[in-house]
Recover the amino acids of this structure.
């Protein structure tokens, strides 16, 4: 087993994972505190070996507080803000995308919140979050006792190690676990490892829970976390960034009134790039923007906005003749505007070959802005 652990430590070092090295070090310290001097020579030997491998591999260069670490802190803070604004959840796979687009600087993008527990809270809401946190709290509490056996201590140590790891990174990727068909680039080995690691975490939690299990502790912690969630929900109306669902599609709203401008983009954009374009055009205030492309939808969402903002191929929906004015952003070069379309605006860069043609063919448009 010691030889096996040594091989694992070498493999860990060559992943250059600072979180992994930190957790392995903490677990070793917990073992030393539990066993005292009994195995101190082995632990010292492992520590020296770890330092040598770090030196040989160049891993020491990773042990710094760089932009990856500082960005992670920024992601966590803004992820918490997103949860406080939407305590009922933003939906599976939406937390990182929405946080990247609305709350993080332009050069920071994330698919998850680089914290499995915070991602779960943001995406599934405080009710499921309360269940998750109550289970974790009870498992840890049950594992800490005056008469801790060696097996129970080892289980608690491993469980806490995974708990810390999943707090510092996306160890449990909920979108991969619940919607693996979306990630076609992942191999069967990748998926098997993801499910296996989550299964190990559940087995460790199960052992700790049912060893000296106390129903009262589990229920009390659940209701405490649930009450905190209801308090957050009661005050969340003050935060503007809201997640809405219309026609089975997710929208992000940053205004209090219902008279927002609705923005729909095509496959040439992502939520973040579409929002960046709106910011450049100073159209990003009081909007309701879809989180996914609307290109292959059949109709407009059943809304009555202040304006429709249609990107690229979504300009085809202007022929639906909505009552609200239309703003077009880089429509297709072959797009023909219905003469009965409400007076609108077209945003095109001046170098775009469509610019002069549209300017001549559609004088009924209120304004063509050169960008």
């Amino acid at each position: 087993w010691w030889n096996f652990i040594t091989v694992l430590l070498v493999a860990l070092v060559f992943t250059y994972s600072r979180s992994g090295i930190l957790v392995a070090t903490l677990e070793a310290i917990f073992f030393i505190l539990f066993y005292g001097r009994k195995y101190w020579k082995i632990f010292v030997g492992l520590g020296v070996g770890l330092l040598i491998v770090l030196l040989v591999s160049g891993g020491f260069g990773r042990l710094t507080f760089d932009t990856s670490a500082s960005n992670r802190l920024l992601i966590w803070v803004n992820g918490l803000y997103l949860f406080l604004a939407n305590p009922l959840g933003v939906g599976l796979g939406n937390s990182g995308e929405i946080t990247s687009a609305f709350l993080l600087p332009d050069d920071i993008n994330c698919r998850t919140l680089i914290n499995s527990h915070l991602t779960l809270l943001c995406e599934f809401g405080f009710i499921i979050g309360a269940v998750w946190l109550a289970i974790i709290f009870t498992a840890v509490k049950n594992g800490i006792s005056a008469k801790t056996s060696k097996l129970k201590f080892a289980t608690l140590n491993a469980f806490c190690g995974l708990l810390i790891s999943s707090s510092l990174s996306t160890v449990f990727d909920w979108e991969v676990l619940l919607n693996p068909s979306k990630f076609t680039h992942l191999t069967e080995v990748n998926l098997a490892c993801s499910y296996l690691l989550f299964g190990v975490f559940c087995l460790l939690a199960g052992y700790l829970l049912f060893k000296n299990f106390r129903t009262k502790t589990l229920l009390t912690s659940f209701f405490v976390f649930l009450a905190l969630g209801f308090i957050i929900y009661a005050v969340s109306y003050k935060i503007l960034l809201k997640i809405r669902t219309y026609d089975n599609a997710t929208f992000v709203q940053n205004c209090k009134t219902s008279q927002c401008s609705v923005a729909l983009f095509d496959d040439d954009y992502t939520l973040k790039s579409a929002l960046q374009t709106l910011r450049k055009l100073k159209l990003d205030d009081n909007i309701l923007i879809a989180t996914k492309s609307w290109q292959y939808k059949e109709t407009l969402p059943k809304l009555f906005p202040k304006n429709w903002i249609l990107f690229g191929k979504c300009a085809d929906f202007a022929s639906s003749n909505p009552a609200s004015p239309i703003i077009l952003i880089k429509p297709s070069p072959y797009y023909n505007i219905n003469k009965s379309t409400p007076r609108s605006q077209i945003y095109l860069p001046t170098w775009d070959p469509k610019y002069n043609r549209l300017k001549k063919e559609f004088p009924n448009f209120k304004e063509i802005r050169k960008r």
About this structure: The chain has a mean pLDDT of 85. The beta strands are 242-246, 249-253, 261-264, 287-290, 308-311, 326-329, 345-348, 367-370.
